[in-house]
Design goal:
This protein is of the alpha+beta class and about 300 residues long. It is about 45% helix and about 20% strand. The chain has helices at about 1-40, 45-55, 60-70, 75-85, 100-120, 120-125, 135-140, 140-150, 175-180, 195-210, 245-250, and strands at about 155, 160-165, 165-170, 185, 255-270, 275-285, 290-300, 300-305. Strands 1-2-3-4 form a four-stranded antiparallel beta sheet. Strand 1 (about 155) and strand 2 (about 160-165) form a beta hairpin. Helix 5 crosses helix 6. The longest helix is centred in the N-terminal third of the chain and has 40 residues, at about 1-40. The radius of gyration is 52 Å and the shape is elongated. The N and C termini lie far apart (about 180 Å).
Amino acid sequence: MGERNTVKNRAAPARRTRVVRTALPLIASLALVGACDSAVGIPSEQPAATSEAAQSNGPDSNAEQSTAPQSTAPESTVAVATTIAPPPIPPGPPVGEVPGNPGAAIALRPFVNDLAGGGIGVVTARCWTVPPTKIPAMYVDTNAILAAVATPGVDGQFAVTWTGPTATVSVERSDIASGYACPTVYPTGTAPVFDATDAAYTVDRYLGRLAGTPVNRADVEENYPIVCDSNRLWDPAGTGLPTAPPLVENPDILPAITSFNSDSVFVTAQNGIYTQVNADIIDASGTYQNRTFVLTIGGEGYCIGDIA
């Protein structure tokens, strides 16, 4: 008995050892299962991270990346367009530019186009600053005028000129300012000639303004001056003591008139640079008068300095 008890007691520890050894694999298996359970919980957070990654690489990100190079394209296109745009070519026969006075060629070009395309009749209707009786002879040689205006113009003290082989074309500053310049044409190598016809026409225009019947409604002193300015030396009597022209000092020498006889306007005397023109008028009271106009000549033609 005592020996059996001894055997039992010796066998018992062996069973406990087997239990422990059996439990170790079970615990290891449970640990693995727990590890798997922990791994299952991570994918529940990964979609958010994946979504953020997808957004960073999604259409919005691509749009931002593609927008950056596109923003410079319109600027480059605009810069090239403004740089290479050529100036427009004016129609009609060429007119030489005038250094320092670009408006001169612009104002002469419509006249040149009318003369080349329409002839004397067209320019006569528009060139009311020129005596109508002088236009046919002055503008008859169209080819000579076209050859002159094709050369570069020269800006002078009183007028702008284009000089050709046989003809010289000259325009006054008042005509340039109007936008339609009717030139004086004269043979190259000579000076422009202002004669009795020009003097009488100057008085005709002045009286037309006073009577309310101007040769053209645009014919006003501010735009087309025909009264001598105050810088002009005035001494028709040859006293050696020049003064300012009396008419510029007293514009009301001749009061308002109701009418005048254009056929009565003619040159009656000349004394050097001074020319006398007489004309019949009807004043505001209905009284007939014959008045004397004294003119002088300058770089822009005739101007009226006194009325008697």
